[in-house]
Design goal:
This protein is mostly helical and 452 residues long. It has helices at 2-9, 14-19, 24-35, 61-66, 72-97, 99-124, 133-156, 158-163, 165-172, 174-192, 198-227, 230-254, 268-289, 293-296, 326-332, 341-355, 358-370, 386-408, 413-422, 425-441, 448-451; strands at 258-260, 263-267, 300-301, 307-308, 320-323, 336-339. Helix content is 69%, strand content 4%. The longest helix is centred in the middle third of the chain and has 30 residues, at 198-227. It is flat, with a radius of gyration of 28 Å.
Length: 452
């Protein structure tokens, strides 16, 4: 706004107004409508940030009564602790129920996070009653989910797709259908543009797309990690939870030195204590899960219409003997130690979760401060909204996916075989003959004459 008034003062925007056939009166009216009369508030800080109604305390009445004798600090501590243990118990119950339930859990969390962020935008600008804003936001969410989940079905549910002819059509033209759906929403947005609301409508269009990028794309990566093996899903999520809990505890009991202005309650003591606690927890938790094929095997959809989690564990999940460095040998009086290679990778994951992961929370704190809100929502007493609990998880999911593709993942024979089974018989025969010739040349199978 200040920049716009400066351009008016020196006449620098005359050409802009002439080109767009917008009169001075119309321009002034649009500015006043979109910003809500911010010209009267130029002297105040953050004048372009409308106030959002504060969230409501929805702590169960039974908890309020039980903790009524405590100070607000300790009351909040107990509420957070009880709800944290409840959520952790629910998480492990969901793991017990299998990969399909975990996928629906990720989808549900994604939808709720999207709802919380979009609702903030709606509450900030609700007085303008923008046409189709909420409808288009949810429509774009549907389109993006159709695209990503369709990609997942095409990659991991090949045996199921082969048996269903309608699905074969949808998979074959999946990306074209996804683009057509998005294009429909794009045209609907253009048709919904209203005079004097143009700039605000484009703000909301960008708001929706940034939300989709942050929430839906990361959720897709979480599911991709799950199919690599449940251990790649469980360990990263668990170490972020551990870091969050331990940083809170260390900060609560020992915190003295502020860490960052965006989050005044965060302290260096909590940050450092959370780091060391998370590395130790991740190392031990990785050792525990690496012993079970249910957690380490890639998740595959079998021909019996169920998820199969059984395989011969890869080298990552086979105990190997390592020679300790000299200082550790002197300290522990051990020359060698047996570890799962995945435990070494867990140190990298824990380090990221402890040192970089919190920046996802700092980013969320900055976002909330920009709109003068304490939490994204009031879904979980003592914690805020779902997005308040998953701000670091989404950043972690991206790192794990990049880490797997860069340092872990190799050719997947079962996936290659699934793709071969979709081909036409002539194509399969051509590949067979090519592979046979290649193996014969390398001496891995005898020539046809020798067999005869």
């Amino acid at each position: 706004m200040t920049e716009l008034r400066q351009r008016r003062g020196d006449g620098g925007d005359a050409g802009y107004r002439d080109n767009d056939n917008i009169s001075d009166k119309e321009t002034d009216g649009e500015d006043k409508t979109e910003i809500g009369g911010e010209a009267d508030r130029d002297s105040k800080q953050d004048t372009d940030t409308p106030e959002v109604q504060p969230s409501v305390d929805n702590t169960p009445e039974c908890l309020n009564k039980a903790l009524s004798g405590l100070s607000s600090r300790w009351k909040n501590w107990w509420i957070r602790g009880i709800l944290t243990l409840t959520m952790i118990s629910g998480f492990f119950l969901t793991i017990y129920m299998g990969p399909l339930v975990l996928m629906f859990l990720v989808l549900g969390i994604q939808i709720k996070c999207f709802h919380e962020i979009i609702t903030i935008g709606y509450r900030v600008y609700h007085s303008y009653d923008l046409p189709w804003f909420r409808t288009l936001s949810w429509y774009f969410l549907l389109c993006v989910n159709y695209f990503f989940y369709g990609e997942t079905v095409a990659d991991y549910f090949v045996t199921f797709v082969q048996r269903e002819e309608p699905l074969q059509f949808l998979v074959r033209y999946h990306r074209f259908i996804s683009f057509a759906l998005y294009l429909t929403g794009f045209c609907m947005f253009v048709l919904s543009l209203v005079k004097k609301h143009y700039r605000l409508q484009f703000y909301m269009f960008a708001w929706t797309h940034v939300t989709l990028l942050i929430v839906v794309t990361q959720s897709h990566l979480v599911i991709q990690n799950l199919f690599e093996g449940m251990i790649w899903f469980i360990v990263p999520i668990s170490i972020v939870i551990c870091n969050d809990i331990m940083a809170y505890l260390f900060g609560f009991f020992f915190g003295r030195t502020p860490l960052i202005k965006l989050s005044p309650k965060k302290t260096w003591e909590g940050f450092i204590g959370g780091f060391f606690s998370t590395v130790v927890f991740g190392f031990l938790f990785a050792y525990l899960l690496a012993q079970y094929t249910y957690f380490v095997c890639p998740v595959e959809y079998s021909e019996s219409n169920s998820f199969a989690v059984s395989c011969e564990p890869s080298e990552l999940f086979v105990l190997q003997e390592y020679t300790l460095p000299s200082p550790l040998r002197t300290l522990l009086r051990w020359k060698t130690v047996k570890l799962y290679p995945f435990q070494i990778h867990s140190i990298a994951l824990s380090t990221f979760a402890s040192l970089i992961g919190p920046f996802g929370g700092f980013f969320a704190s900055g976002f909330k401060r920009a709109f003068k809100i304490k939490d994204f929502a009031d879904t979980i007493p003592g914690h805020g909204g779902i997005m308040d609990r998953f701000d670091c998880q989404y950043l972690m999911a991206t790192f794990v996916h990049v880490y797997i593709t860069s340092f872990i993942r190799g050719p997947n024979p079962s996936k290659v075989l699934q793709q071969l089974m979709v081909l036409q018989p002539e194509q399969q025969l051509s590949i067979f003959n090519t592979l046979k010739s290649h193996l014969t040349e390398r001496g891995m199978i005898p020539p046809v004459e020798a067999v005869q």
